[in-house]
Design a protein that fits this description.
Length: 141
C-alpha cells in the first residue's frame, strides 16, 4: 500500500522545527489511542464473534485473518510498538538538533518525512482492518 504525502504534510515539512515537534507529539497521542482502540476491538471481537458457535464456515478464514492482524498490531514489537519507538527516537533526535543547531536539521526533516509516510501507511492499514471487522460483524448480525 503506497501513499503519497498530503499537501498539508509537505507544507509542514518546511515549517519550523517546533511545528514538526508538535506533529510528532500528535503522532504519539494517536499511536496510544490506536493501541487502546485495537485492544478494545480485539476484546470485543474475541468475546462476541470468535466464541459464537454458528460462525459460517466461509467466514472462518476471515475471522482468523482479522484475529492475526489485531494480534500483529498489538503485540510487543508489533507495528504499533515499532512506530511508537521510531517517533520517540525522532523526538530524541530533535533534542540533539536543537542543542547543536547544526546541519542535522536537514536530516531531521528527512527522517520526519519518512515517519510521516510510515504513519500514514499505518493509518490506512488500520482503517482498512476496522472496515473488515465491521463488515464481518455486520454479516453475522
Amino acid at each position: 500500500m503506497e501513499t503519497t504525502l498530503s499537501p498539508k504534510t509537505s507544507y509542514l515539512l518546511e515549517a519550523g522545527i517546533e511545528i514538526l515537534h508538535e506533529e510528532s507529539m500528535d503522532w504519539l497521542s494517536e499511536i496510544i489511542f490506536w493501541h487502546e482502540e485495537s485492544s478494545f476491538l480485539f476484546t470485543l471481537f474475541i468475546k462476541n464473534v470468535q466464541n459464537q458457535k454458528d460462525v459460517p464456515a466461509h467466514a472462518k478464514e476471515a475471522l482468523l485473518h482479522i484475529e492475526r492482524e489485531l494480534l500483529h498490531l498489538r503485540r510487543a514489537g508489533g507495528e504499533l510498538d515499532s512506530l511508537k519507538h521510531e517517533v520517540e527516537q525522532h523526538e530524541r533526535f530533535l533534542g540533539l538538533v536543537l542543542d547543536n543547531q547544526m546541519s542535522s536539521e536537514r536530516n531531521y526533516r528527512d527522517e520526519h518525512r519518512e515517519l510521516a509516510r510510515k504513519f500514514h501507511l499505518f493509518e490506512a492499514h488500520f482503517k482498512s482492518l476496522k472496515k473488515d471487522i465491521f463488515s464481518f460483524v455486520k454479516t453475522l448480525l
